[in-house]
Design goal:
The chain is mainly alpha-helical. The protein has 4 helices and no strands. It has one domain: Arc Repressor Mutant, subunit A.
């Protein structure tokens, strides 16, 4: 089944880092982007996947094969 949700490459990268347990600040430092930018990507991920928190975000991302 084709996944109908389109994530940007940056969103996929941030999703992977969230799944590794990195904090927003750690992600911003690793990717050389600002904390507000990471928060925007996280918000977009939550909205696109219909999640209410990071735990649910990861669960849905695994079910939809965005991450393994």
């Amino acid at each position: 089944m084709r996944n109908l949700i389109d994530l940007t490459s940056r969103e996929k990268e941030i999703l992977s880092l969230i799944s590794q347990g990195l904090t927003t600040r750690q992600i911003s430092q690793k990717l050389f982007i600002s904390v507000p930018t990471v928060k925007t990507h996280r918000h977009n991920l939550l909205r696109k996947l219909g999640a209410v928190n990071s735990a649910q975000l990861i669960s849905l991302a695994v079910k939809r094969s965005f991450i393994s």
